UniProtKB/TrEMBL annotation:
GO CC terms, sorted: mitochondrion
Alphabetized GO MF terms: mRNA binding
Protein name as annotated: Pentacotripeptide-repeat region of PRORP domain-containing protein
GO biological process: mitochondrion organization; RNA processing
Organism: Coniochaeta pulveracea
InterPro entries: Mito_RNA_Proc_CCM1 (IPR051114), PPR_rpt (IPR002885), TPR-like_helical_dom_sf (IPR011990)
Gene3D superfamilies reported for this sequence: Tetratricopeptide repeat domain
Residue spans of the PPR repeats: 132-166
Listed Pfam families: PPR_2 (PF13041)
Length: 672
C-alpha cells in the first residue's frame, strides 16, 4: 500500500499506465525503502490524489457532481428570487402604509392567510423607521397560537433588540400563551422568568391580568410552589387579587384524584399507607383552601371583591374532593354566597301556591300598605350593606356541584328540591352534563318515578343513549317499587325520539323487567303475571329492535371494502346480537313454562325463530369476515367479542352451543 504522495503521483501518472508492463517487469526497489516514505502525510494531502483516482476510475462522477451542483445552485437561486420578490412586495406595501395602525392591520390580515415570513419581513422593515409594537404583538400571538413557545420568546427578544418596547398587551399575549400551552412544564419556567424580569423593570410593572395569566400557567403545570411565589407579589394597587385570582388558586389546590371518587375506578391506592397519605394530602389542601376562603369573605364583606359563580364552584369542588363532612359544607357555602336556602330547613309548603283560606287581594294590599313604612326604615339602614355585598348568580356549574355533593352525602331526597328551586325559581337552564348528574343522584336514591318524569321532560336535543341507560339502571335498582316496570316502560317509550334506538338500553329494559318480580312472588298466578310482564316488554321491544336491525343495512361510514365496513359497525352489531339472544331466552321461558295465553305463545314462537336465525347469520357472517381480516384486526375483533359476550352473559343468553333440553333448562334458571 502506497503511503507516499510522490509514489502515488508516479504510480497514477499517464506514463505509468502506458508502461505498465515495463513497470511490472522491472519494479522499482526503492519504493518501499524507509528513507523515501513520508510517515507524516496528512489526510488533506492525500485527498486530492484520491479524488483524482476516483475521477480517473469513474468518468461519470464529474457529470453527476456537476448536475448536483447545478440543482443546488438552481434551488438557491430560486430561494433568492423568492426572497427578492417578497422584499419588493414588502417595500411596495410599506410605501402605502402610512402609520403603525395600518401596518398592524395589514400584518394581522397577512397572518390570517398563514404568510408568516412575509409578515415578519414587513414588521422588521417597518421597525427601522417607526414604532410598530402592535404588529410585533400580532407576530408573537401567531406563534403562541401555533404552540411555538421558543419562536414566540425569540420574537419577543428580537423585538427588544430592535428598540421596539413591549407594552402591557405584549406581556399579556405572552403569559396567556404560556397558560394555554400544551407543554406546561416548559411554559411555566418561561412565564415565571419573564414575570420576575418585569418585576425588576422600572419601565413597566406587571398588573393583575399578567399575574393571573402566570398563575394559570403554574396551575396548569401543577407547580404550587411557583404559584405561591407569584401570589406573594400581589399588592393593593397594581396587582390587586380579584375573583379570577382566587379561582385559579383554589382550582390548583384541588387534587386530581380524590379519595371520595375512588369508587368510580379512576385511581385506587395500592396500600393503606398510600390511601392514608392521599387522604392527608386532600385534607391539607382543603384546610389551605379554607384559609384562603376566609380572606375572600373578609374582602367581600368590605366590598373589595366581587364573588362570582366560578369562584364559589372552585371552593365547592375543593370541599367536594373530601369526605362526607366536607361535602355537607357545600350547601352552607352556596347559602352564604348565593342566598340559596338549605332545603332541609325549608318547608315544602313554602314553594306551593297559597291555600284557599288566605286573605283576599284587598286585605293583602292593605297589609302591604301598613308595613311599607316599617320596611322602608329597615331598608334605609341595610341598603348600604346589601349594596356593598352582591351575591353570585347560580348556573349549571352550581347545580351540578350541589347534585354531586348530595350524591356523596346520600341526601337524595333533597335533590328534587334543589332542582326545582334552581330550575324554576333561579331560571337555570340545565345542559346535558347537568341532566346526567341529576339522573345519577336519582339512581343513588332509587327514584325511578322521578327519573321517568325527568326524561319525559328533557328536550330532544339533550337526549342521548346515556340518558336512557341512567334512567333504566335507576329502575333496576328500584326493585322494591311495584311500579318500577311501568316507569321503565315510560323511559323506554321515550327512546323513540332517538334516530336509532340504543341496544344497551334494550338490554337494561329487559333486565328491569326481570328485576321487578317481587310483587308476583307470593301470588298463586305469579308465574303467569311475570310471563305477562315479560311478554309486554318483548312486544314493546319488537319494533325498536327491528328499526335497530334495519339501520345496519345503510352504511354509516365511508368504507373502502366490506371488511372495513364490517369492522366499523362490529360493536353495534354485537350489541344488537346480545339483545336478540336475551330476547330469545325470555321467549323460551314464556313458551316452555306456558306463562302466557296460546295467542301470545304462538306469536312469541314465530318471533323467536326470526331472532334465532338473525343471531345465527351474524355469527356465520362474522366468522367469514374474520378470515379476511389481518391478524391485528382479528385480535381486535376477538377482544370485542369477549367484552360484549362475557362469561356471565354466555351462561345466561348464549344458548347456541347447547342442546334443546339444555336451552330450556338454562332459560328457566335465567328467568326464575
Amino acid at each position: 500500500m502506497f503511503i507516499c504522495r510522490a509514489c502515488w503521483r508516479r504510480t497514477l501518472s499517464p506514463a505509468a499506465f502506458s508502461t505498465q508492463k515495463a513497470l511490472l517487469a522491472a519494479p522499482r526497489t526503492n519504493i518501499l525503502r524507509p528513507f523515501d516514505r513520508r510517515h507524516v502525510a496528512t489526510a488533506t494531502a492525500r485527498e486530492p490524489a484520491i479524488r483524482s483516482t476516483l475521477d480517473l476510475a469513474s468518468p461519470r462522477r464529474k457529470e453527476n457532481d456537476s448536475e448536483q451542483d447545478g440543482s443546488a445552485d438552481s434551488m438557491s437561486s430560486a430561494l433568492e428570487a423568492r426572497k427578492n420578490r417578497m422584499k419588493w412586495k414588502v417595500n411596495k406595501h410599506l410605501e402605502h402604509l402610512g402609520n403603525n395602525y395600518k401596518v398592524a392591520e395589514h400584518v394581522a390580515k397577512t397572518l390570517e392567510r398563514g404568510e408568516f415570513e412575509e409578515a415578519a419581513m414587513l414588521v422588521r422593515q417597518a421597525s427601522k423607521s417607526q414604532s410598530v409594537t402592535v404588529a410585533w404583538n400580532h407576530l408573537i400571538d401567531y406563534q403562541m397560537q401555533q404552540q411555538r413557545l421558543h419562536a414566540a420568546v425569540k420574537l419577543y427578544n428580537e423585538m427588544k433588540k430592535r428598540n421596539q418596547l413591549p407594552n402591557a398587551q405584549s406581556y399579556t399575549i405572552l403569559f396567556r400563551g404560556f397558560a394555554n400551552s400544551v407543554h406546561p412544564k416548559l411554559a411555566v419556567s418561561e412565564a415565571v422568568r419573564i414575570y420576575h424580569t418585569m418585576m425588576s423593570s422600572p419601565r413597566m410593572q406587571p398588573n393583575t391580568i399578567h399575574m393571573n395569566a402566570v398563575l394559570g400557567a403554574c396551575a396548569r403545570a401543577g407547580d404550587i410552589e411557583s404559584m405561591f411565589s407569584i401570589v406573594s407579589t400581589a399588592d393593593d394597587k397594581l396587582r390587586t387579587p380579584n375573583s379570577r385570582t382566587y379561582t385559579l388558586i383554589l382550582n390548583a389546590l384541588r387534587p386530581k384524584n380524590s379519595p371520595a371518587r375512588v369508587h368510580r375506578g379512576r385511581e385506587i391506592p395500592d396500600t393503606e399507607e398510600d390511601a392514608e397519605g392521599a387522604q392527608a394530602a386532600v385534607i391539607g389542601a382543603i384546610n389551605q383552601g379554607k384559609a384562603i376562603w376566609e380572606e375572600v369573605i373578609r374582602r367581600w364583606r368590605k366590598a373589595q371583591l366581587v364573588i362570582d359563580e366560578p369562584l364559589v364552584c372552585a371552593m365547592g369542588r375543593l370541599l367536594g374532593s373530601g369526605g362526607r363532612n366536607e361535602n355537607e359544607e357545600v350547601l352552607a357555602l352556596v347559602e352564604q354566597t348565593m342566598k340559596i336556602p338549605k332545603m332541609a330547613e325549608v318547608d315544602a309548603s313554602d314553594f306551593l301556591p297559597s291555600p284557599k283560606g288566605c286573605p283576599p287581594a284587598e286585605q293583602t294590599a292593605q297589609l302591604a300598605a301598613e308595613t311599607t313604612e316599617a320596611v322602608a326604615k329597615f331598608q334605609a339602614q341595610t341598603r348600604i350593606k346589601i349594596a356593598n355585598r352582591r351575591f353570585a348568580h347560580a348556573g349549571n356549574n352550581t347545580l351540578s356541584m350541589i347534585l354531586e355533593s348530595l350524591a356523596v352525602t346520600r341526601k337524595t331526597t333533597l335533590g328534587p328540591k334543589y332542582w326545582d328551586f334552581l330550575v324554576n325559581k333561579c331560571h337555570v337552564t340545565p345542559d346535558n352534563a347537568t341532566y346526567h348528574q341529576y339522573l345519577r343522584l336519582l339512581r343513588v336514591g332509587r327514584a325511578s318515578a322521578t327519573a321517568a318524569d325527568l326524561i319525559e321532560s328533557i328536550p330532544v336535543e339533550h337526549l342521548a343513549p346515556k340518558t336512557f341507560r341512567l334512567g333504566l339502571s335507576t329502575c333496576i335498582k328500584d326493585n322494591l317499587n311495584p311500579n318500577a316496570f311501568l316507569n321503565a316502560t315510560r323511559i323506554f317509550k321515550t327512546m323513540n325520539k332517538l334516530k336509532v334506538p340504543d341496544a344497551h338500553s334494550m338490554r337494561l329494559y329487559l333486565q328491569a323487567t326481570r328485576a321487578n318480580y317481587r310483587q308476583f312472588r307470593d301470588k298463586p298466578d305469579g308465574k303467569f303475571q311475570l310471563g305477562k310482564q315479560i311478554a309486554m316488554a318483548l312486544d314493546n321491544m319488537w319494533e325498536p329492535f327491528g328499526q335497530l336491525s334495519r339501520s345496519f343495512s345503510f352504511s354509516r361510514s365511508e368504507a373502502k371494502s366490506p371488511e372495513e365496513e364490517w369492522m366499523a359497525t362490529l360493536n353495534d352489531r354485537m350489541e344488537a346480537t346480545a339483545v336478540a339472544r336475551r330476547m330469545v331466552a325470555a321467549m323460551d321461558f314464556i313458551v316452555t313454562e306456558g306463562a302466557g295465553t296460546p295467542e301470545v305463545i304462538k306469536l312469541l314462537t314465530t318471533r323467536r325463530n326470526i331472532l334465532n336465525r338473525q343471531v345465527t347469520r351474524f355469527f356465520e357472517k362474522h366468522k367469514e369476515m374474520e378470515k379476511r381480516l389481518p391478524s391485528k384486526q382479528q385480535s381486535i375483533a376477538q377482544e370485542r367479542m369477549r367484552e360484549v359476550f362475557s362469561a356471565g352473559e354466555a351462561k345466561d343468553d348464549g344458548l347456541d352451543e347447547l342442546g334443546e333440553h339444555e336451552k330450556i333448562v338454562t332459560a328457566k334458571k335465567r328467568w326464575q
